[in-house]
Amino acid sequence: MIRVFLTIILTLAAALPVMAETRVAATTTSMAMLARTVGGDAVSVTTLAPPDRDTHYLQAKPSMIRDLRSADLVVAVGAELEVGWLPAAIRNAANPSIRPGRPGYFEAAAQVELLDAGGRADRSGGDVHPAGDPHVNLDPVRMAAVAEALADRLAELEPGHAAAFGERAAAFAQEVEQRLPAWEERVADSPGVVGFHKDIRYLLERLEVPIRGYLESKPGVPPSGSHLRELIAALKGSGPGVVIRHPFHPSGPVEKVAGATGWATAALPLDPPLGATDEDYFALIEDYVEAVAAPRRKGE
């Protein structure tokens, strides 16, 4: 009897349709969040770069190559953000379907208009990106546009789920549209922000928050004493504001400027945590909004 029962169960299990997941290798947790949000149960997502590291300066690792070897789709930020490690990792993965130019390779930066596009590829200007500033992940509006483009790409790979991909991308875009006015209202009349690197500029410009300067005199170049003194002189007497860095940035230059000007400080991640959902992403944007708005409220 038991043998007959097991035979029936195995027969029924074999008759059930098998859900094949599209295996996505995302370069950052922001890109992984989008893939997870748009793809839903039809995708399995791995993240190549941890959120507590500066993506500019990573190196190709065996774990990355392993994940890329089995991937159906790479979701990268693009605009040469990962140029120091992703091309080498893809090459060593020996997976032709995910090479640039193939349907299995997707760049977020290629889907939206970038700031600083068309600049000179001259390293004397610092860590420049001739294709444009790649740090689109902190702009929810651009991320919504990327989500819609990603839905189209996933539909190419899995046509049977095309409608679901499109619906999820549209829901993400709608959520951004609904949240944006409240974010803008909360930071209205903000006296401004000093960033460490230009990677927060997309969000600040989206919310029309004044950018009062950067601790780096040039992108990717460590803050110099002379540059910090000039920045402090420009900020003194200008009212409250906030100096923002990421956890992988040194705190010394931030504290020097804040101590001399009375400005607040905030250490906020550039990307959401591993395994992030869309709610985790929106919570990260909320943290930035709170940091930018708080100095104004304290001064009232």
UniProtKB/TrEMBL annotation:
Domain of life: Bacteria
Alphabetized GO MF terms: metal ion binding
InterPro entries referenced in this protein's UniProt entry, alphabetically: AdhesinB (IPR006129), Bact_metal-bind_prot9 (IPR050492), ZnuA-like (IPR006127)
Coiled-coil segments on the chain, per record: none
Signal peptide: 1-20
Pfam families xref list: ZnuA (PF01297)
Gene3D superfamilies, alphabetized: Nitrogenase molybdenum iron protein domain
A biological process from GO: cell adhesion
Keywords associated with the record: Signal
Name this protein carries in UniProt: Zinc/manganese transport system substrate-binding protein
UniProt lineage: Bacteria, Pseudomonadati, Pseudomonadota, Gammaproteobacteria, Thiohalorhabdales
